[in-house]
Protein: UDP-N-acetylmuramate dehydrogenase
Amino acid sequence: MAVNARQSAPPPTFLGAGAKTRKKVGSLCSSCSPSFGSEDQAPEFVRGKLLSELSTWGIGGAARLFVEVRNREQLVSSIRHCREHNLKFLALGKGSNCLFDDRGFDGCVILSRINDMHENGCGRYRVGSGYPFNLLGIHTSKQGFGGLEFASGIPGTVGGAVFMNAGADGQETIEVLEAVEFVDTNGQTRELLKKQGELACSYRKSPFQGMPDLGAILSATFQLQPCPLSRDRQRDYLARRKQTQPVNERSAGCVFRNPGKGCQSAGALIEAVGLKGLRIGGAKVSELHANFLINTGGAKASDVLSLISVIKDRVRAESGIQLEQEVRYIPY
Structure:
C-alpha cells in the first residue's frame, strides 16, 4: 500500500481482521444512506475485526468497525459515511508497515481491495491501490520493463508503496511514478502529477504523509522503460532478499530508516551495538537482519515499542545517531 484517522477533523494516517456484527453501510446510521450504485455492491461493515489478522506483524486489538472495499465507489462512499458521522477512519492496504495498538482502533478500518490494472503495452500501468506491490514487480519484469524489479520482495500494496515511497536495491517508487489518484476527507477525488511537480518525494517520504486532507489513495500510474535484463534482475533481488532477511518470520519489514550518506545502515548500527537477538516479551531483533523486529509468538505492540525504545537509546548513546522509525504506529 497506506488513510485517515478522523474525528473532529484530526490529521489523516495512511498505511499497505470477535464476535462479528455485519451491517450494510446504509443501515449503520438511520440518518444516512450512502450510494454505491446497487444494493449488491454495498460493502458490509463488521464490528470487532481483529487487526492482528490484517497485519504482517500479527499484532493489534479489535477495530470498532471494519469494511472491505473493492472499487473506488465503495471507498469514496465509505469515507463520506465516516465523515458525515464524525467517525475516525484508517485506510489500509496489507498492513505491512504499521504497528496497531494492543487495544485496537476506535474507529473504522477501511481495507482496500481495489486491485484493477490497466496497461497500454508500452510500459505504462495504472494500478489500483490494493494491488499487491510484489506481484506488480514480478508482472512488469516478466513483460520486459524495468524500474520495479525491487518491488517483488516488498510485501505491501501499491497504495502503501506510494505513500511510503518504498524502495530497495537502489530503486525507489518515485522514479517510475507518473500520477496518483486519491480521495480526500470530503470524499472528492483528486490527482497529483509528477510532470507538474506535485510528486516531490525523498527517502521513504512522499507528499501524502503530510497531507492533512488525505482520505485514501485510489490508484497510481507508472511509466517503465524496456529492459531486457529486468526479469533476471528481479530474480536476483528476490533471491538476495531471501538470503539476508527473515522473510518467513512475522515482521513489518525494516523498522528504521537508514540514516543517510556517510553513515552505516540502520541494521549495521543496531548490530554494531550488540542488539541482534535481543528480546522483549514476544518481540525480538532478528538475528538475520537487525533492522527487522519479529513476532516470535504472542508479541504485543507494547513489546515492540519497548524494543524500539531500547534500540534508539543504545544506538544514540554509542554512535550519536538518532534512528528514525519507518514503521508507523497506529494509536487506539
User: Anything to note?
Assistant: The domain at 246-330 is CATH 3.90.78.10 (Uridine Diphospho-n-acetylenolpyruvylglucosamine Reductase; domain 1). The longest strand covers residues 214-223. Confidence is low (pLDDT under 50) at residues 1-40.
